[in-house]
Specification:
Distance between the termini: 37 Å
Number of strands: 0
Order of helices and strands: HHHHHHH
Structural class: mainly alpha
Helix content: over 70%
Oligomer: single chain
Length: 187
């Protein structure tokens, strides 16, 4: 506080002000990178739970098209009646891209939780066929939606976030630069 309010004409004060400005910016960048990494991690977890769901339902008599219908019905339950396609249009998601690649972290994690709940219940209840599994997936998504709504989080009203593929490329690029710069420092 003293340095911030002192006379920047003095060399020591100017140095301190510059130092604190740089440290503040560095902290902001670190926090931003952590937030992006958390979103990437959430997306990877969603992919893993959906892969497990796909394997489970295939073993229980549901084909690939059925898997798509089950996921779509789950999305509709999570997004208050909005279909996957309606959410993609609302969030300006390109037609050939996954909705989850543009969702905020809380929604990605919500989808992962609902899918994991479905996976557990498929096993525990020994569910077979598309109808039973769809019903379970809708129920799981409705329960997750209720939890979000109880905290005033309305999934279909959250804004789209940056394309996860762009985020991943940027983090990978920054990591390579950091590694390159750190090897220069070591030399």
């Amino acid at each position: 506080m003293i340095a911030q309010n002192a006379d920047p004409q003095k060399e020591a004060v100017a140095f301190a002000q510059t130092y604190f400005a740089l440290q503040t910016r560095k902290q902001e960048l670190i926090e931003e990178r952590i937030k992006l990494a958390e979103r990437l991690d959430a997306r990877e977890r969603l992919t893993a739970t959906e892969t497990t769901l796909s394997k489970l339902i295939y073993e229980r008599g549901v084909d690939e098209k059925g898997f798509g219908r089950i996921r779509s019905k789950g999305d509709q339950a999570l997004f208050g009646g909005n279909t996957t396609q309606e959410m993609k249009q609302k969030m300006n998601v390109p037609a050939k891209r996954a909705l989850a690649d543009f969702l905020p972290t809380v929604t990605i994690l919500s989808k992962a939780l609902a899918t994991e709940m479905t996976n557990i219940n498929i096993k525990n209840k020994d569910l077979l066929g598309e109808v039973a599994i769809t019903s379970q997936h809708i129920d799981s998504n409705k329960k997750v939606r209720q939890a979000l709504l109880s905290d005033n989080i309305i999934p279909e009203n959250l804004p789209a976030e940056e394309d996860i593929k762009k985020v991943e490329r940027r983090i990978n690029s920054q990591t390579k630069k950091s590694l390159k710069n750190s090897s220069k420092i070591i030399e």
